[in-house]
Amino acid sequence: MQWLAQAPANIALIKYMGKKDSSLNIPLNPSLSYTLNHLLSNVVLETIAGKKDYWEPLYIPGASDFSLTTSSQERYLAHLKKIKEFLNFNGAFVVRSSNNFPTGSGLASSASSFAALTKAAVQAICELQEKPCLPIEEQARLSQLGSGSSCRSFFSPWVLWDEHQVGPIELPYPELIHQVVLISHEEKKISSSEAHQRVQTSPFYAMRAKNASDHLLGLLDALQKKQWHTAFEITWREFQQMHQLFTTCAQPFSYITEQSQALLKVVQDLWKHKQDGPLVTMDAGPNIHLLYRLDQQNLAQEFKQRELVGNYDVL
Ligand code: PMV
Hints:
Bound molecules: (3R)-3-hydroxy-3-methyl-5-(phosphonooxy)pentanoic acid
Oligomer: single chain
Distance between the termini: 35 Å
């Protein structure tokens, strides 16, 4: 028997960085994300004899090849094992997965891939055990054990996650135009799991939870009042602050390259010149996410044509 599930990526405007409990991925601070419904992971599970699961790429005709490193496969299968234990299931699956965004695009795909695996596994096991399916909130909490940020991929468009709960939050701008500028295609050297650990040694870590909570309140207020410029300023401060934790910890590192800096400057100039522009954020990687309101469609097109096309890959 086979089960298929799909889940989207999400981009945090208020970041999850630092954990209160690493074994359960309890976040240090609340985060706010926008779900990227066009960047999807697909997972197909099929029952097999025995007890040992294995992974292989999901073949989708016309799509480019997909692969996972051995350690990523192990982490993925370890999450499946946890779900099986939680649901008291002894059987085994072959897990086939892929993303609809190019492999090696430098985009963190753990949120969408862990959410899709959790959905598929819960659906499969509940059906095999002839039990009612777990509510979506419980599936999200289960997914959080594999990748914290994946719990936000169960809801759309705006999602709030704190140490107690995760769920959608109603805000203006239910639909935004999202572009991600691919600065680097390389696999990142410091994983986000490693980053969560290292930042604890930054002198700024002690203030991080308070700062992130203040940013969250400010951003929610700005979005609710449709103060786009303020939303831009807070979002900007927020990602800069997360990246400052990276450069100031005991084993410092940085994802921001010269090319990222150059493009950030171009976007800042756009804002200065037009007094308008996209919300800008960066995750634990060098790529730059731009979020425009729907009424900024022309601006988004113009900026892409003038500054991005020919210089960068844009998804
Ligand atoms: O879910 P993780 O452990 O991959 O952490 C994700 C952390 C960031 O992407 C950097 C920020 C976030 O909130 O998504």
